[in-house]
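Fold it.
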Amino acid sequence: MKMFHAKSFLPFLLFCAPSVSFAYEGDPVTNAVKDLAYLQAAPARLNDRPAAYLAGGLLGAGVLVYSFDGQIRHIAAKNRSSSLDGAAKQAEKIGNGGYELALLGVFAGAGWAFGDGNLTDTALLAVESFLAANAAGTVVKYSVGRSRPYGEDGKRAFKPFAFKTVHTSFPSGHTTSAFAVASVLAARYDSPWAGIAAYGAASATALQRIYSDKHWASDVFSGAVLGTAVGRAVVRPAEGRAGENVRFFPVYGPGFSGALAALPF
C-alpha cells in the first residue's frame, strides 16, 4: 500500500467516532502474549450452542472452499493480465508486515499529534492483534506444513515441521495480518464505511495471494477467519474484558489438517 493511501484513510478515521472510548493499558507485545494464552485455553470454553453452531458453520465453509481449491487456482491463472498484475503488486503490500506496522505507526503518531487518543489506542490494539495473529498463524503454518500451489505437489500435500517456505501455505500469513488489523479498525469505529474500507483492503490482499499463486483459496479463507477472530478477541477484552466467546482449535480429517477459529458476530 502506498503511503498516499494511508494519508487518504487517516482523515477518515479522525473524522469517524470510535464505538467505545478507553485508555490502552500496557504494551502491545506483552498484551499479545496474554492474548495467545487466552486463545490457547479457548477449546475448553467451547460449551455454548451458538458458538458450536458457528464453529460448525465455519468448518463446513472451510471444507467447501478446500474442495474447490484446484478450480479456483485454475480460474485465477486463466484470468491473469498486466493490469491485474499491477493491482496485485499493490494489494500485496496491505498484508505485508513491514507496511502494516509502518501504517499503524503513522496512525498512532497522528493520534498523538492531533490529540486523538482513540486513534492512538486503536493503532496500538491493531499492533497487538497483528502480533498475536501472526504468532498463532506461524505455529499453525509449521505444524500443518501444507505445500504452496507453486510447489506443484497438489492441495493434499502436507509435510509438518518441514521448515521450508514452500511448505508454509496454511494459513495465509498476509491474509491473517490484513484481517487482524482490519477487524480491529472495523470494531473500533461506528461508521459502516470504516468496516467496508478496512475489510475491503484486507480482501484485496486475500485475492492477491490466490492470484499470485502463493496460497490455495482455503489457506486464504482460514487466514481471514483467524485474523478476524484474533482481532475481535483483542478488542473485546481490551474494552470490556468480556471476550469469552472466541474459540480456536485444531481440525484434522482425511487428507486435511488445520485450525479453526470461531467468533461471535
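The chain has ten helices and two strands.
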